[in-house]
Structures are given as structure tokens and as C-alpha cells.
TrEMBL record:
Keyword field: Kinase, Phosphoprotein, Transferase
Domain PAC residues, every copy: 395-447, 539-594, 680-733
Reactions accelerated catalytically: ATP + protein L-histidine = ADP + protein N-phospho-L-histidine
EC number, as in UniProt: 2.7.13.3
Origin species: Corallococcus soli
PAS domain sequence ranges: 319-391, 602-674
Protein name per UniProt: histidine kinase
Histidine kinase domain boundaries: 744-960
Top-level taxon of origin: Bacteria
Amino acid sequence: MNLIADLIEANLDVLVRRFVEETRGRESSQGLKPSEIITTLPEYLRVVAAICRHGPTPEHLETRTRLEEAHINLRLRVGATQEDATDEYTLLGQLIPRLWDDLRDAERPAARDLQCLFHQLEEAMDHVVLLFSGYSLEDRQREKRFLRQLDALAPRSLEAHEDAHARLKPLVDVVVRALEAAGAELFLVDDGGVMMVAVADAGQGVTPAGRRQVDSRGPSFLGRVARSEEPLVLAQAHGLAEAEREGLHAEGWSTLLGLRLWPHGELMGVLCVGFAEARPVPPQTKRFLETLVEYLSGILDRALLLGRLNAAHRRLETSETRYRLASQASSDSVWDWDLTTQEVTWSGGVQDLLGFAPKETGGTASWWVGRIHPEDRERVEHGIHAVIQGTQARWQDTYRFQDRQGGYVRVLDTGVVTRDAQGRGVRMVGAMQDITDRWETETGRERLLQEAQTARVQADRELSRLNTLLHQAPVALAILQGPAHVVELANPRICELWGRTLPRMLHRPVMEALPEVRGQGLLELLDQVFTTGSPFVGNEVPVSLARAPGGALEDVYFNFVYQPLLGTEGDVEGILVVATDVTDGVRARQRTEALAATLHASEERLRLALDAVDMGSWDVNPLTGESSWDARFRAMLGLPEHGEVSLAEAMQFVHEEDRAKVEQAMAEANMPGGSGEYACDYRVRLPGGDGAKERWLSGRGQVHFRPDGRPARFVGTALDVTERRRAEATARQRADFEQYLVGIVSHDLRNPLNAIVLGTTSLLRRDELNERATKAVLRIQASAERAVRMIRDLLDFTQARLGGGIPVQCQDLDLTALARQVAEEVQVNFPERDLQTATAGREARGCWDPDRIAQVLTNLLGNALKYSPEGTPVTLRVQDTPRDAILEVHNQGDPIPPELLRRLFQPMQRGVPGMDRTTRSVGLGLYIVQNIVQAHGGTIDVTSTKEAGTTFTVRLPHDRMGQAARG
């Protein structure tokens, strides 16, 4: 008695009818009559039943083979593909077991009988492959033999810059022997993916010809192969034009067969096989070449991947060493703030800076906020959140922070925000620097500058009074130093006294402007004030002048005050001459002497302030370009220590990439009607020209304008900020590298692991595997699948942290049906456990991503089953409310410890110790679950007590976009 044979024979009509119904809708069956679909199916099922009942007798096997050939030949005539034909036998393997779905276990066929059925269907599919492609069992065995040889010769790793000829030539030799060819050449693409370079060749009498290149986009035979999905044949290779032969080396090949290496949808290279005689290339040879090239692609892909990993590891070690040395040399503390979880991690520098060990920093942003000085806290919090919620990429602030001893240090804190595709801040990396000493110095400078400013205000008041005096006094001149002592300023009353216009006096030498004073010692007196820098007061000095134009000269007595005008470096640039008649001499002298003292004290305090903060200064005439630079600024910019340097000459010392920015900032400051404020950070190149001589300066200045709106004076200061800039760059580079490395490694590892999984699946279908080999393949498959899950988690983690969130593709979905389906799939992996599903009996519909929601459910159910005692149930509940759908996963057992519960959804967190090592992961599952739920606009919570057990609750709004708008 054989149950399978009985069921097939008793339900023959049912099987044929269901077969026609299932295949009628397929494209390969369109336009066929039912008889053309059925063909030999009834007879074939009868002989399959006979073999199941009586065994594979020669007569039955011969009949089965004849019926299969008749059916497959009919499929060939109606245009079906190999895949169409094999799918029909796969369908039979699904229809027959459905016959006993509703039977009791005792009435179902035994596993041995079921294996007999499936074995016949697999042989039928092999028959399809043979008739469609002409690929026999002998061909497959030969293929396996050469693939093993490729495996044995495969290099473990290859690096991009390595000369791979010697290491890859043995692999090319195997291909030549397998195809019985005269030779072959292997080309791999360069880093740009355009040029292909010959890395190995093989053939009798062929010697390596160096690194030959060929354009993969060009008209050559190799270029056409690189762009073709199928193998290309060139039947006559003799006498090829140079453009077609580009890159090829062997001269004696008559027929060429080429195929590209195309792993993961990207061009890796081209393999060109040559035959000495002109010959057609049969389909079996092309198929064999495809198999060899696909296998060779996998070998090279794995070797190049390991090469890149080795190179990345070396770069990582170098970067880690550089970062460690930089951290040791710097007093900065680098921090990393996950804006989605509020977790903050600190580098070891926090101990040197503030006295805290990294484990004492609290782990969240609230610890940092709580130690900011109360007077600074609101301002700092408001500022940093304004940057995070806005569009800026950088935040910086100075505030007081409490150290471990309870005191406060003044810190400069700088952070850079990483945003997702929607512009939301997801991460912030920064560096905290102790600037207490510098702040105290700058505070002293600010105090001195404030004093100087106060003095200048007072001076302005005095100058205002002086202005009134100048208009009242009969004589008021401003004389600039020079060989002729040129008159720069003269009040209108002078014109009245001497009977001449202002144009005849201004910008002229003193003796030319006032020839009446010749011989009265005025020039000698001016030279004395210019030389000594001391003011001079002359009481009741007679001056000869004419009261009216053309009138006779007469002596008039005046009180004269000669006040030197000092430049930024303390030198005398001019002299202010004020004269009043003797009736007002006392008051004029007192005011002028007070003005002289005020100006002198103001200039002195300003010079002291600049020296105290090691800050350079300048004073420029924007109209003439004449410039004055102090010694500190000359050293910072790299200017000569002595001699005159114009503004245009000084600009040549500014970095060429920043020069336009500095010129633009100065032009805006000099615009009439503006504030006159100048602020610009820029680089300078000190003599030597290498990177070590490059410095960053922060310039601040003010332009003063004449009454007519023209700029009269441009003064300012500069501070060296090179070290601060370098610290900020180091923090950004390290943060970017960490996330980039995780993304690269996880993405590149997934492809070879997928190939391993597919390979083991194919091996398990082979009959020739014994029990020991089958167990080994199953272990490999289980390990590879676990690695694939880890890689998938790492990719999702990278997307969530670096790419700004896990993407979802929402569509209309019945959550109740999906929950049942996922529960059934999980139950297969835990057949001994009780997994219950509770629903309200109606659909819970909404706009969700089915694959991502399935990932959430699989993870939560898997965790519940792993972390709960055997013999206890795990329950999945689905509820629907007007606003959202609710998923609950509950399990019994020990509660989650409180310290773990607080950080359960953070990355790199795992469950309780002691779990089976084969089931462990990288600790990203719940972090990814939370990101998927948040991407749908939902929430996830967990409660865990000894009495009630552990429950994860997911709330998903029906309309994710609507939820986002409400949020």
C-alpha cells in the first residue's frame, strides 16, 4: 500500500483540472487549448504513481522519460522557456501535497514516500534543462571539477593598487583548459570604472605585455563585450583594425569569445578567450563560459572586498593613532549627541578638561544641561535648540560649566549638526574647549578697550567743543608732517583775516598758504613739536596780518596752542594749531591742554590693551592705500618687520582662496551709509608655503567716514584662531569616518553572503551529498543567514544614523492579515513553542510599509520567544481604533532589569547574558524597530514586571502623512 500512489490515482481528474486552472493565467499558456496545456499529464501522473507504489523499474522509468520528452518538446514548439517548463513541475509538487491537507497525521504519506515523489519531479526538471540547453550530467560534473580548481587557486585578498598578474594568471589558465582554448586574457576596470587594464593572460608562447589599457566605452571588441549582457563571438579575428583590436595582445587567435564580469550590476572587467582555429562556438561552450565567469567574478569580488577591508583597517589604525595622539595633545573633549535618543557620549578628554571619567557623564543631554551655570543655561539651551530645529549646520557658544570639584570653568563649545533628508537634526558632534585663561585675558582686553572707548567718547565731546572753538578762534589750522608742512584744515575765519578763499589755503604748504607769517619762526616751531611730540603753548604772541584785503600789515597779539596729533604707533602725524586773541586766552588754553591730556591717555590705554591680548592691529587710509601695521600683525600675516607695506601688498599674503572673501568684506565695510563694521576669518600663508605655515586669522575692524560720506580711516585688530579651527576639523572628520566605515563594510559584505546562501541552497538539492556533508552545508547556511541578518541590521542602522532615518514605502495594508502571516512564518522557526494571535475579527487598514512592519513583528516576536521560558505562550494582539492601530507582543518570564529598560532602544544593546551564542546579534534590533515605527509617525513602548510579564506596544497612525502634519 502506498498512500501517495492511492491519492494520485483517486484524484487524477482533480489534479488535471487544478493544473489547467493554475497555468491558464500564465503568459506561456496564453492562446493554448486545454488539451495543449494538459498534453501527457494524465499518463505522466499514472506512471509517477506506479513508481511510488512499485519502485523505479526499468519499464516505468523508460515510460516516464518518454512522456517527459513528449511534453517538453510540445512546450518547445509553442515558444515556452526553460523556466516555464520547470515551473510546471514545481506546480505539480505543490498540487499533490494539497490532497492530504485535511487528513489526519496517520492518513498522510510517510516522509520516505514523499521524498520519492519529489525525486521524480526534480529529475523531470533536470530533463527540461538538458533538452532546452543540451547540458548533460557529464557536463555538470566537468563543470564542478573546474570550479573546484578555481576555488583552490583563488587569492585570499587583492588590493586595488596591487600588480595582480602573477596571482590571477593561474585562474585564467584554468579557464583556458576548461574551454580547450588557445589562450585567454583577463581585464579589470580601474577605480573610475571606465578604463580596463590587463591583469593576467594565458596561452602558448604569450608573454606578459605590461599594463595594457582599453576604453570600456570604446568601439573595440573588448569595449563591446563590456557593454553586452550576453557572450560575444568574433568569428574572424585575423586582420582586425587597430580600433577593434585595442587592448588585445595575442596575435594567433582566429576566434574570440568574450564575456563581462558583472557582479552586483556593476562592471568589474572582461574575460576574452581565444581559439587558434576559426570555429563556431556552440551554446554549451557559451553556457560553460557564463558559469566560469560568474564563479570567477565571485572569487575576485571576495578578494577585492577583503583587500579593501585590509586597506580600510590600516587607514582606521592610522586614523585612530592620529586621533589618539591629537586627543592627548589637546585639552578638548569631543562629544557625540544622538538627537533621536538623547544619548550623549564623551571622549576621554572630558576627564582632563573637567575631572569626570567618561562613565560619570550621565549618558544623556540632561546631565550636560544640569551642569551649565544657571545664569547661562537658558541662553545656551535656547541657542543650541534653535540651531537643531533650524537649518544651520554649526552651533557655537561660550558659557560656564561646572567641573567635578564644583567650580566653574569657562568653555568654548562648538557643534556640527547632521540632518536627514527632511532636514531634521539627527546627530550632533562637537568639541568643548577650556578657554578660562583666554577669557580672562580677553575680559581684561575688553575692559581696557572699554576704557579706551570711554576715553574716545570723552575725546569726541572735547573735539565737539574744540569744533566750536575752531569756528570762534581767528586762527585754526591742522598741519600734516612733511617737507613742506601742508595745511589740511583751516576754518573760515582765517579767510576773513587774510582776505583769501579756502581753496587758496587747503592742501598747500604753510608758507604758500600764509606768506604773511614768513620770518616769524613758525616752521621752526612746527619742527620742534613734530620732533618732541610735546604740545607747545605761546602766550601773547604777535602775528602780522592785514585786517582787509590789500591793507597794511599790523601786529595782533594771540594765544597759540600747538597740539600734536598721534598715530596708532605713537608717532606724530600732524599738529593742530589753535589761536585766540588775548581776551579769551585763558579759557582756550585750558580747554586745549585738557584735550591734549585726554587724547594722550586714550591712545596709551588702547596700545596697552592690544599688547595684553597678543592681538595685532592696523590703520589704513582707504582712499590712498597708505597703511600702518603694528609688529604683532606683521608677524601674524608674514609681512616684513620693517618698511612701508601698502594694503595691496599686504593682501598678497592672504591665502588665494580667501582673498576675494576678504576684499568683499572690506568693500562692504567701506560702503557709504553703512555701519562700517568689518568681520572676516581667513587664512594666510607664512614664508615657506607648506601646509604647516598656513594659519587662520579672525579680523574685526571699523571704518570711519568723512562728513561727505567718503571713508577716512579703517582701523581694526586680528586674532590667531588656527588651533581652534584644527580642533573643529578633527571632530568633524572622526564623526564622519565612524559612520562611513560601518556603511561601507556592511554593504560590501552582504553580496558575498548572499552568494553563499544561494550556493548552499543549491547544494542541498543535490542527491550526491551524504549525511555528513549535508550537516556541514546546513551549518554553513545557518551561519550565513545569521550573518545576513546582522548585515541587514547594520545597513538599517547606518541608514538611521547617517542617512537620516529608515525609508518606508507606504501602501494600503490590512495589518490583521499581515500579523497572522508573520506569526505563521515565525512559528516555523519555533515549532515547539506556543505562539498565539489575538485579533478583533476585522480588518485594521492603514497606510504602512508591509515589509518594514513585518520586520518589526518578526523582531519583537523573535525576542519574546528567545527571552521567555519554554512552555509559556507568546501572544500577538492586533487592535484597531479610529486614530491608529495597536500591536502588542506579550511574553512571560523574568522582567527586564530597570537599568537595561532605560536604554533598551539604544543601539548595541543586548538582552540578558547567557543566551545561546548561535542566536545572538549585534544588538541593533530594537533600535531599528524604533526607527521603523517612528518613520511611520508611530510610537513604541515597553512595560515589564514580574507579575504581568513583558509587553511591547506599537501604535501606528492610519495616515502617516496626516500624523506628521499633526506633529
